[in-house]
Every structure is written in structure tokens, then in C-alpha cells.
Amino acid sequence: MANSTDDFYHQKTDAELQFFVDHPELYQPSLIAAARGELRRRGVVPAMAPPAEFPPLTYVSPADTAAPVGLRTGPLTLGLAAVLFVGMGGFYVMKQKDKPAAAAEKPQAPPHLEEVATSVIPDYGAAVRVSVQRQVQRVPAGERATAARATMPMHQYRELAKRFWTAECQTEYVVDRARQGKMDAALPGHVESAMATWEQWNKATVYRYQFGPQMTQHFDAMTRVARQQQEGLADLLIVARNPQPYETAKTRRREADVNDLLSSLLPKSPVTAKPYSVLVRKMHL
Q1: Which terminal Cβ of the chain has fewer Cβ within 10 Å, N or C?
Q2: The model's pTM
């Protein structure tokens, strides 16, 4: 057993033996004395350890030297922590007393709501259905019967009339507002919506249709109105974005031509209820 103990010290380096000597508070006195004797045997004079400032801590055996030693707390440490905590709390209370009382928070006023112009055009669905039916009634009965037997021509005619009057009602709405001088922030959006609706009509006119005489005349009138109304909307969009007088000689001439063409489809406007006036052309003999 003695040889085993001697081997333990013989295997230690000078630094490790010196560590035992330098920390007498960590090990048994016999272990420190043996380490000091081994250093002398090697011809190394062990340095004297400084006097310990604290009482010896819990005994740690040599077998536990490899394990890390955790932080140990005692009455002194807890006392210092308590004094520090109380001191900081008192300092915080004093600082709070020095601060002026915060002013009562004033109630905020409700947000101001501003009216935003809308780009939604009134729904003329009912007016469009009535307009289509009235236009169909202007087609002679015999022609309607023939188109109904063929199935497709009457269906196509009704669909074309529906797309036409949907766009025409929107166009009359925005043009009437411009004529009344209502150049508000919503007008450009209204004009763009009407122009987009005419695109549905344009897509349907790329096909060829086999209509009777009166239905062909109606289709020709709708096509000419659509072209002029789209030109008028393009001009109106410029006016809506750059406020300026709308009524000009050009707009009045266009309105007269459009009204003349529309009079062959319906007697009056489904939007304003004003009659479509027939353009009287003077002939010079």
C-alpha cells in the first residue's frame, strides 16, 4: 500500500506537486507533507504557500481533483447578496420619488375619416335587360322567327345587344357627369371602367354573323356608336386627369352623331331618360 502511495507522488510533475503545496486549504495535511517531501527528494525547494484568507473549504480527495469545483455559497456570501439587493431597492425607490408625477394621459381624439372617391359605376343591369328586350322588339316579327328557328343568330344578336348596352350605359353615365362639370377624383376611374367594358364588345365583333336585314342594320349602328364612344372616352380621360372644359365643338358634333345612331335602336336613353334626337341633315339641291 505504501508503494502504491509513493507511486502516486512519483507520477506527478513538479508543477502538480507544487499545486498541492500552494493550496493547503484543499487537501489533507498528510497529502501536502508528502508532496513537499517528494519535491525535496527531487532537489526542488517548495515555495511557501501564502496564508489562506478564508477558512478551509470542504475536503476534496485526490481522486476528485479532475472534477471542476463549483461555486460554494455560505452565510457570508448570502449576507452580502442580501445587503446589495436591499441597497439597490432603496436606490430605485428614491429615484422614483425624485421624478415628477407623470401627467395624466390625454384621451386621443377619434381619427378623422375622409371620404374617398370611388371608381364604381352604378349597376345598370336592369336597364340593360330592358334595353335589349326593346331593341329585339324593333326587329320585324318574321325576321325574329327566322332567327329563332336558326337558334344561333338570335342568341348571338341578344348577346351582342347586351354587351353593347352595358358599355353604352356606363359611357352615358360618365359623359353626363362630365357635361355637368362633376370633375371629381372618381371620374378617371369611371372612364377607365367604361373603356374596359367596351373591350367585351370589341372581342365579340371579330366574328361574322348571319343576321337578317334589320338585325344587320342594328349591328352596324351599334358598331359605329361603339367606335365613336370609345374615341370620346379617350378624350374624356385626358380631360378628367387634367381638369379643363369638356364641352367643345368636337364633343357636340360627336354627341349629335351618336344620338342619331342610337335613335335607330331605342327611342330614349336608359340612363338619362332623354330622347335620342334624330339628326336632320339638310340637302342642297
Answers
A1: C
A2: 0.58
